[in-house]
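re: ur question from earlier - yeah i can do the single chain one, its not a big deal. heres the input i used so u can compare w yours
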Amino acid sequence: MNKDPDLAARTRRLLDEATYLNLATVSAENEPWVAVLQYAWIADPLRFVFGSAISARHSRHLASSPAVSGSLFVAGVGGDTAITAVDGAQFTGRCSEVATDDLGRYHSTFYESVFPDAEERAEWTLPQSMLRPPAEHRLYLIEVERWWLIDTRTWAQDRIDRRIEMSLGDLTRS
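and the output i got, formated as tokens:
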């Protein structure tokens, strides 16, 4: 695994600038699904928080199988070629509903990230009572286990799309 500080900086930029992540789940019957979700991220260790209805397909999948994979990307990062104009990452991890006792810990983090404007946040934030059973919505927590960035070092020479796995141990929120 790579501990290059430039990769950690790229990861932080991606996490801050990407608006959505793609989350892949699999049902108990091995039916795959990908959902596009707004998220907040937390470092030490890297985690994502998102909100969803318990009736959503990905939420139903998570109830039976917590293993997930996903990706996020940003476009127009200043490069002049197709490979350098987009930056992205892929990850694997485990996802579960945020426990009722932990809602206070993640609630404001999620809504402040998704709705940075205070007026908009006030309009769209669900109170914690609407995120507890038997309510229809929940917050979910993805615990990232592995992280890969697009590896742009050799693409210009051989046109092979590679990923470079990086260590998350040194990732901190700046």
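The domain at 5-152+161-165 is CATH 2.30.110.10 (Pnp Oxidase; Chain A). not sure if urs matches, ping me
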